[in-house]
């Protein structure tokens, strides 16, 4: 049996799966936590990888490895390959002002947004790496001056697995590069002019590998010789792990909420709602992301003094629409819509709706309405939506699974809980190892199917309240 390993270096943890390269059968796995916060020392990712690999039985018998990782994180290295400062993660919103400045610099209002969409398929928001680099240049000019190379979390961990060779050995892939704000999925090229505009310099950038191009070999922690895949961003890895096809929407309810669709054509949305990302196979992955997703369920359960099972039971016991009670779940600001300093809001509170069940229902519906807005934005780019694959920690909620088709208005398939980012990385590793023209055909995960039964009044009421919210000054 030939084994391959997939790594998911996510916001919250490092997960490692070891699978049979031919069949995809899971052989063993491991996990280790990451520190909390939006600013993390990359050394913590390496330490977590070592723990997770040890728990998964090591890499000595593994023939190939690939890494999937949280997108957008800013990892700055000096000329000796040392980390300049702790990495700013995708959910760090301190660069919101920098995003607005960068957009205006290419034109006022719509003209600036259009210019960015045409250049790199996205409009700057605080999540993207390019805005974090502008923040660095303005807030920490000494660190900006020390920065000789910029990479992403998955790029850095791949480089660590390769034994930390020189900066020239840094590599990435289309999927992760497309989330930086200075690489175009449509053209397949970096935009050094935009990088220099942000940072005031043009540091070394990782070479962008093809979907199944080897990135070298492992030379790490006593393990040597395994082939390294290029890796990819977490969303592209999840789509690969789920074997998503054109027209399939992967809706992930995790730390962030993500609506992405596998597409044959690139997207360029001047509104900024949809980011024109690439996938891990050579196709494209137009994507909408929200800052608020599964943690909305956590917060509501905490507020009600309930566990998640009880929260789900309460939500399902209340009527659709929660009697007019609406929760707009901008608990951490919001990325889509771009309201980084917004707060959450509850509207429609009456004597009749002042019950735990109504609040639980409003929380689930508010979470799903935010994602349904994302689905509408993806459709507006011309993508044809066939079905939704519902994944992530939030998909474990029975209420989320059962209410989702009514809010989203399309069939919803729920694969069993799994580590689909790590699985996608493992599938990529098997692909690189095989040298084939396409990734291996591993069995698709079984799914729980929920047919669409739209309840439009829920979204109509949510839209009324959503537009009452605004950024705090």
UniProtKB/TrEMBL annotation:
Pfam families for the chain: FGGY_C (PF02782), FGGY_N (PF00370)
UniProt cross-references to PROSITE patterns, sorted A to Z: FGGY_KINASES_2
Carbohydrate kinase FGGY N-terminal domain ranges (all copies): 5-241
UniProt keyword annotations, A-Z: ATP-binding, Carbohydrate metabolism, Kinase, Nucleotide-binding, Transferase, Xylose metabolism
GO molecular function, one term: ATP binding
Family (UniProt): Belongs to the FGGY kinase family.
Designated name of the protein: Xylulose kinase
Record organism: Geodermatophilus amargosae
Name of the gene this protein is made from: xylB
């Amino acid at each position: 049996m030939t084994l391959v390993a997939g790594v998911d270096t996510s916001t919250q943890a490092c997960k490692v799966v070891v699978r049979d390269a031919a069949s995809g059968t899971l052989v063993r796995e491991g996990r280790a936590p990451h520190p909390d916060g939006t600013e993390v020392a990359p050394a913590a990712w390496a330490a977590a990888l070592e723990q997770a690999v040890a728990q998964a039985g090591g890499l000595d018998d593994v023939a190939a490895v690939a890494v999937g990782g949280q997108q957008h994180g800013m990892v700055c290295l000096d000329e000796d390959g040392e980390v300049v400062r702790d990495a700013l993660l995708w959910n760090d919103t301190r660069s919101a002002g920098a995003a607005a400045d960068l957009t205006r610099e290419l034109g006022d209002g719509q003209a600036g947004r259009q210019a960015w969409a045409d250049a790199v398929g996205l409009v700057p928001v605080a999540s993207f790496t390019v805005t974090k680099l502008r923040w660095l240049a303005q807030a920490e000019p000494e660190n900006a001056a020390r920065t000789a190379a910029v990479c992403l979390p998955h790029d850095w961990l791949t480089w660590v697995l390769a034994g930390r060779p020189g900066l020239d050995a840094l590599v990435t892939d289309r999927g992760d590069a497309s989330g930086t704000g200075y690489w175009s999925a449509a053209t397949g090229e970096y935009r050094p002019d935009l990088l220099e505009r942000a940072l005031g310099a043009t540091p070394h950038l990782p070479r962008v590998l093809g979907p199944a191009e080897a990135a070298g070999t492992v030379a790490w922690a006593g393990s040597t010789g395994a082939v390294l895949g290029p890796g990819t961003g977490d969303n592209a890895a999840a789509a690969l792990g789920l074997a998503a096809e054109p027209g399939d929407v992967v809706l992930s309810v995790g730390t962030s909420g993500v609506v992405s669709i596998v597409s044959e054509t690139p997207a360029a949305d001047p509104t900024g709602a949809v980011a024109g990302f690439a996938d891990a196979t050579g196709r494209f992955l137009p994507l909408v992301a929200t800052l608020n997703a599964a943690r909305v369920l956590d917060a509501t359960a905490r507020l009600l003094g309930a566990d998640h099972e009880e929260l789900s039971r309460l939500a399902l016991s209340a009527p659709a629409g929660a009697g007019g009670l609406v929760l707009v779940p901008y608990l951490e600001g919001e990325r889509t819509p771009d309201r980084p300093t917004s707060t959450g809001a509850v509207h429609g509170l009456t004597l009749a709706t002042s019950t735990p069940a109504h609040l639980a229902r409003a929380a689930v519906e508010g979470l799903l309405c935010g994602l349904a807005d994302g689905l509408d934005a993806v459709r507006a780019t011309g993508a044809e939506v066939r079905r939704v694959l519902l994944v992530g920690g939030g998909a474990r909620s029975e209420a989320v699974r059962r209410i989702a088709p009514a809010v989203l208005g399309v069939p919803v398939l729920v694969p069993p809980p799994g580590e689909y980012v790590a699985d996608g990385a493992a599938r990529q590793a098997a692909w690189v190892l095989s040298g084939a023209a396409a990734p291996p055909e591993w069995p698709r995960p079984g799914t729980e199917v929920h047919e669409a039964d739209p309840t439009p009044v829920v979204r109509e009421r949510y839209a009324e309240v959503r537009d009452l919210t605004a950024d705090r000054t």
